[in-house]
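Quick question: what would this complex look like in 3D?
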Amino acid sequence: MVLLALFVAAVPPLAGQYENLNPDASSRYLIFLGTSALVLALWAISYNLMLGYTGMVSFAHAAYFGVGAYALALIFKRYQLPFFVALAAAPAVGAIVGLITGLVALRAVRLYFSLLTLAISQLLFSIVFQWYDFTGGDNGISITLPDQLNDYTTLYYFTAAVVVVCLLLMFVIVRSPFGAALLSIRENRDRAASIGINVRAYELAVYTVASLFAGVAGGLFIMYQQQAYPEMLYWTANAQPVVVSLLGGTSTFLGPAVGALIYVALDNAIAKQFPYQFDIILGAIVLGVVLAVPGGISDAPSVFLRLRERFHRGEKAEAPAAESTGEAIRMIDVRKALESEAIQAEAVHSGKMLLRLENLSKRFGGLRAVDDVSLEVRQGDRHAIIGPNGAGKSTLFNLITGRLKPSAGKVTFDGREITGKPPHVIARTGIGRAFQITTIFPKLTVRQNLQYAMLAHGGYTMRPFGVANRMFRNEAQELVEAVGLGPWADLPAGQLSHGDQRAIEIAISLALGSKLVLLDEPTAGMSAYETDKAMELVRRLATERHLTLLFCEHDMAVVFTTARTITVMHQGRVLTAGTPDEIRRNPDVQKVYLGELEEEELGA
Amino acid sequence: MTPGQVLLFTVGGLSNAAYLFIVAAGLSLVFGALRVINMAHGSLYMIAAFVTVVIANQLGAGLGFWGGLLVAVAVAGAIGGVVEVLVLRRVYGREHLVQLLGTYAVSLVVAGGVRIVFGPNYRTVASPIPGHLDLAGYSYASYSLFMIAGAIVIGAGVWTMLYRTNLGRNIRAAVSDPDLLNATGVNVTRLYTTVFVIGAGLAGLGGSIVAPSQAVGSSIDTDVLVLAFAISVIGGLGSIVGSAVGALIVGMVISFGLVIPQTNPFALAFVFIIMTAVLIVRPRGLFGRPES
């Protein structure tokens, strides 16, 4: 970062030297190129807040860049306001237009979000293009800078100063708990919602922030180009920040800045003589990155990181590649977990009604997946739901946690009705969840997985300052060690074996300090020994920390050693409920399970 | 507006809808079966338009055009096949943005290639069906009427292919569960290539058919792509009927929007307002089905 800053500061003197050595070259032109690289870097990094950090592809980002440029030009030229007022208006107008259009675009997710941004972009373009009296239509609009900025070296330093300030602000944002929430969304939307993050609100926030900085970049653009034109807003103009981000790497903050430098150099070297070949080269670069990067776009390798590695080579020995063994559960330290402050629940008198389901139903077309289920879970209970495959257990969990909206019925938790509320709201009322299919943040480290869950639970993720990775670090480390994952705390969670990922999954649901923890087949895929160990942890935590458990499980040994209450489901309905002893003796239950056994034996 | 004018603009809207439908149907078909948004769809349209113009101008407007059309569709289909095998096969099942960027990269490469091969100038070709039809005080180019009829035939053809042939049955099965289809012995890899080639061929057909009625230049790829997106989104991505309805809406809005002086500047803006409104009210479009 320091190196880059020095380089940025040194461009005009270097350009001057270059001109002295080589009379054909113009220092003015080089400084102009430097200015355009700075502006492009700012624009691309603001784009990468969405692309690399949140996993959103927008086709409207160029529109906010254009809007910023037009805002400055119109306010300065048409309304004759002081130049710095106009300059300040660029980000303000960019952000306002971004917020309003973002509200529309974020009605949809993923692909449909991208298509909506495309429509918005074309809409803004047609307004600028067609509103001849106001914007000058296809002639564009040109300005003359005030005298004190009308010197190219001064302008360069001014641009550099603004860009550096903006980059610092964005850097603070991506390191903050707010940035942590964005990463969680990129990694796994469902998991992010289930730790209490309001995915859409955060997406709208980052969309607006990105528009704001795009507005700044647009304002700076018109300062050195001295004109704005409608094509700046056309949807294909988004190619630039995308290509630049991919070129430099989306996985690091400054990657796109390096990309901007390369882009401007390439553009200058090739595009002037061979404009069409340049398109082909850009296409080939994007294609190469897309095909070569196995994970996702957020993995695009950073030129910046590689350079740094090259610099530091030899200084430190290559760290031995740690490998997870899948035996974390064997190393669970129950005592440590019990001491961990991350896992907490209010010590309330047992027996208070915590969760009540009344006549809950969910239909998928003609199928009644959950049919008129009523159920009560009391504080301190360990409530198991059992039943053959297809009994509706996972659907029931999805209804409770808000992933599915019930067709009928009512869910009350801790005295509040939560029927049909979105997942993040329900998570924040105190329901933690471990999914049946392992759902973690794969590219975040094991510790970050827990840290970010704690941040979200503590309500810190609205904060756009502070360093997320330093918050709750010790608490998360304690919990990581307690669940036996100590040696792999710094490894991306996705690299761990299945069993170890299950341990993270359970740890996340515990890290939320939830009053009620839902475990969907917690021991699926574990060996008998691992199962014992994991359930011992869960049981003892539940007892000593007053957690209430609601879990479904196929392993009857686990059910009967852990549960205090058992509900049996069959074909979407509650067959019966009672203590483990009552259930064991119930002939209907035996029939349901025996029936399934026979079918399995028949190979049906 | 007199009845004669209404007819004039209606026919104008229909002939817009005709070529847009052919292009959008290809986009929608590919999305329906492969779950891939093909950002290079407009590029195939552009290549075909250029190929048609060049061949027709070489060989003479009449027969030359029809020969050019066949070659152009074949070229577009062949390029589509290459893109599917070399690029798309590696990105199926990955996040949508990988596919968006991958096909987008292809469109950049094609755009550069087209400008190198065909140059930056606009080209035109004479209509293969000259002549006019006079009706209610206005005259209509026979070729426009041919385009409308052609689109109806192609629409019926695509529908028949989807709902009355083995290939269509397999495509529809692939939409709901490709793995299961694979297990029943259908070569899904080849099926995907076939679908993509058909989609690319439709893009080419659209570009070829529109060539005599519009100037062909090196930016028509993105212009048509964004309209095809609007149409498929309004109608519902993956639905052929939806593409037809979407194309009618967009074609009419452009035609009537352009002739009414008050709305003239914002005719295209209306298209995107409608697109936005549909996405908000019915996120999967008028005829779309939710993604599984």
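Answer marked as accepted. DSSP finds eleven helices and two strands in chain B.
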